[in-house]
Amino acid sequence: MNFIKESLLESAELKRAVAETMADIIEKAVDAIYSVLKSGKKVLLMGNGGSAADAQHIAGELVGRFKKERKAIPAISLSTDTSILTAIGNDYGFEKIFERQIEALGEKGDVVIGISTSGNSENVYRAMKLSKEMGLKTIGLLGNDGGKIKGLSDIALIVPSKNTPRIQEAHITIGHIICEGVEKKVYEQ
After folding, report:
1. Handedness of CA 119, 123, 125, 128 (dihedral sign)
2. Where are the alpha helices (DSSP H) in the chain?
3. Is the confidence at residue 145, as pLDDT, over 70?
4. Could you give the domains of the chain?
5. Number of CB atoms found within 10 A of residue 47's CB
6. What is the spatial distance between Cα 139 and Cα 111, in angstroms, rounded to a whole number?
7. Ramachandran area for residue 135 (φ above 0: left; ψ -120 to 50: alpha; else beta)
8. Residue 35 has pLDDT above 80, yes or no
9. How much is the pLDDT for 188?
């Protein structure tokens, strides 16, 4: 059962590395999201699998509440509507499930958060590409070396690991920090 202690320590060490190397860029992401919200726009989030769950979780924290009783913050997870996902997947292909939703819901000035542990998820990549073309702010919550999505991210939050479960653990921690930072900026200014 040594793997349990090893896994916990690996997760803790990765979060320590994130704290030491990424605090400034996480703050930039908070500031960018605050700026978008201040101008009356919204947050769109997307990802696959565990990253889809993270997108939904972060959107829920923003729309509901994180730590403070406050007005709802406009955020939509693009990975939650099964009718949209299956219709687009069936009619256009899985690689277009987020791109079509960005086309339908994205407005210039919105912020899009693309979550991908590999940095190479094709459907996230295509949606981020369209987002840039439409004038949306892009934030990549990525792993590994950032993959091809890094180049489409105005702000690339790259967790320095190749271990998917550890990347996901760091992603949700970063997501919580972003939610808390945005909540403080929006409702304590």
Report:
1. negative
2. 2-38, 50-63, 82-91, 97-105, 122-134, 164-188
3. yes
4. 2-188 (3.40.50.10490)
5. 27
6. 7
7. left
8. yes
9. 73
For residue 80, give Cα distances in angstroms to 55, 91, 137, 144, 175. 9, 18, 21, 25, 18
Q: Hey, which residues does 140 pair with through a beta bridge?
A: 114, 156
Per-residue pLDDT, averaged over 152-170, amounts to 98
C-alpha distances (whole Å) from 114 to each of 11, 20, 58 are 22, 23, 12
Q: d(Cα 29, Cα 148) in Å, to the nearest integer?
A: 19
C-alpha closest to that of 94 among 122, 118, 117, 125? 122
Q: Is the pLDDT of residue 187 over 90?
A: no
Using alpha carbons, list the distances in angstroms from residue 76 to 45, 66, 86, 111: 6, 15, 18, 11
Question: pLDDT by residue (tens digit) across 73-119?
Answer: 999 999 999 999 999 999 999 999 999 999 999 999 999 999 999 99
CA 138 to chain centre: 9
